[in-house]
Amino acid sequence: MSWIWTAMGGPDAETETLHESVRIEWAKACACKFRWEEEVQCLREEMRRMLRSLDKAQSDWRDHSKSCESLTVQDNSGRCAYTLWQASFLSTIKSSFEWIWGIKDTLTEDFVDYSALFTPDDVPEFGNEDSCNDDDDDISSHSDDDDNSSHSDTSDSENSST
């Protein structure tokens, strides 16, 4: 029990009223403190759930990229690139949340072990041919420079012929 409930002043009525008002203010402040502590706990839980949600969505996109291996090479490379881009995008969002929130320090303040949230995922690198399939005919292995040079050669030859 806090000292505020047992401390008494002089016998006059004014002191008694003062003590009663101090007790009321103390109770209000204590309730406010508990509300803010609860709010902090709720925010930490929301942060934890957001990170887990991003992990799950990222995992789903990686799984989806593996499931498109049965498609033809032309269909597969586009879908694979898109699914890997989505997984990479979600990973970037998660990393930015961790950085903005200072999440590793914040979540460990309440002495709960959240270390499972911070293990690095084995997300395949975007543009890595081995991440989707083992075909040698993978379209994603061609660079944009090759595509641009072939287009510019064609347009130059068309311009020179006119």
Number of strands: 0
Euclidean distance between termini CA atoms:
97 Å
What is the H/E order? HHHHH
What is the CA-atom radius of gyration, in angstroms? Answer: 31 Å
Q: Which percent range fits the helix content?
A: 55-70%
Query: In total, how many domains does the architecture comprise?
Result: 1
Biased composition (Basic and acidic residues): 139-154
Region (Disordered): 123-162
Biased composition (Acidic residues): 123-138
Account of the protein in words:
By secondary structure, the protein is mainly alpha-helical. It has one domain. 69% of the residues lie in helices and 0% in strands. It contains five helices and no strands. The chain has helices at 3-6, 13-67, 73-101, 103-108, 144-161. The protein is rod-shaped, with a radius of gyration of 31 Å. Residues 118-162 have low confidence and may be disordered.
Identify the notable features of this structure and list them briefly.
mainly alpha, 162 residues, disordered C terminus, single chain
Walk me through the topology:
Layout: H1 3-6, H2 13-67, H3 73-101, H4 103-108, H5 144-161
Region (Disordered): 123-162
Biased composition (Basic and acidic residues): 139-154
Biased composition (Acidic residues): 123-138
